[in-house]
Amino acid sequence: MERISLGRSDLSVSRIGLGTMTFGEQVDEAGSQALMDRAVAAGINFLDAAEMYPVPARAETFGQTEALIGRWLRARPGLRDRLVIASKVSGPSRGYDWIREGSQDLTAAQIVQACDDSLRRLQIEHIDLYQIHWPARHVPMFGGVYFEPSKDRPVTSMHEQLEALARLQRAGKIRHIGLSNETAYGVSEFIHLAEQHDLPRVVSVQNAYSLVNRVVENGLDEALYRHGVGLLAYSPLAFGVLTGKYDAHGLADPDRPGRLALFDSMKKQRWARPESLEAGRRYNAIARELGISPATMALAWVHSRWQTSSTLIGVTTAAQLDENVAALGCRLDEETLARIDRVRWEIRDPAQ
């Protein structure tokens, strides 16, 4: 599988990365390990985890995905050096009172402790890409649309967070840093602070990017381009909306249950909005007319965008993994891309 240099770093990552948020919840340990083995055999060298995984987040399962990956690595001596392993420190509590006792900040000390905890669970000496999962400051995210100054509050500065990440880097515990669920302002400010104070420079931003959420193109992409930062596109299939599994029966199809149907908390997510489901049906119909699966078209579209460095896939079966990998070979013609853009004009980013 083709590999790319992530941002301005020396990290060489496969064009597809394996997201692991389902491991330890929807997929048991044996199944998760089998999927990771299959991904590596397919040429994927990039694994993305987080301290809060699996999702849906629960106190009982906090950290279990990292621990599962750690046991998998330990049973395969020599494999770790062939992989790029990423993880994330959670931002301020979003109702998860078991994460740092519900802290509404992300302090330097919390970043250092979270990294140490992740290293212990992963059973590795360093994390190749350590990311802030979401900003400490108020920003519209996870379905939020508008920035609201009234919700702004004092939090640990980006400068202090970078200094903590620098300490971890000097200690050999992390190699590079990234952000997730960030804005153009956030990316630019982190970059400027790093350059001004000789601190670690952000190499990647992990944000949602799919046919039903192209908000990256509303200015963030320019910031990424001009600063030389790579985009890790997550949820390219919009939690299954762009696979067609919800087209016929909405979230109630008993024969093809997905995350949006299995978990009540997911039914409140942006992916489950009526507008998102309707847009998904429109895009999926285009794929079927082309004679390809909706998932293949959706992934081929993300792969084709200049904005995308690596696409993070989340799978629960070997068949899904194989289909997602095969989508790298699909090319969409200009007419198809124009049809896709016309749908977007009519139903604009419903899952932003």
Taken as a percent bin, the fraction of beta residues is 5-15%
| Largest sheet features | 8 strands, parallel, barrel
Write down the overall geometry: globular
- As for the number of domains, it is 1
Report the CATH superfamily: NADP-dependent oxidoreductase domain
Low-confidence stretches: none
CATH class identity: Alpha Beta
Overall pLDDT: 94
What is the SS-derived class? alpha/beta
CATH architecture descriptor name:
Alpha-Beta Barrel
Q: Distance between the terminal alpha carbons, to the nearest Å?
A: 30 Å
Helix count? 11
DSSP helix fraction: 25-40%
Q: Tally the beta strands.
A: 10
Overview of the structural elements:
With 352 residues, the protein is of the alpha/beta class. The chain has a single domain (3-241, 307-330), classed as TIM Barrel, CATH 3.20.20. It contains eleven helices and ten strands. The chain has helices at 29-41, 64-74, 108-122, 158-170, 184-197, 220-227, 259-262, 274-290, 294-304, 318-326, 334-346; strands spanning 3-5, 12-14, 16-19, 46-48, 84-89, 127-132, 174-180, 202-208, 230-234, 308-313. The strands form two sheets. The chain has an eight-stranded parallel β-barrel, surrounded by six helices. Strands 1-2 form a two-stranded antiparallel sheet. α5 (184-197) links the parallel β7 and β8 (202-208). The protein is globular. Residues 15-343 form the NADP-dependent oxidoreductase domain. Pfam families: Aldo_ket_red. This is Aldo/keto reductase.
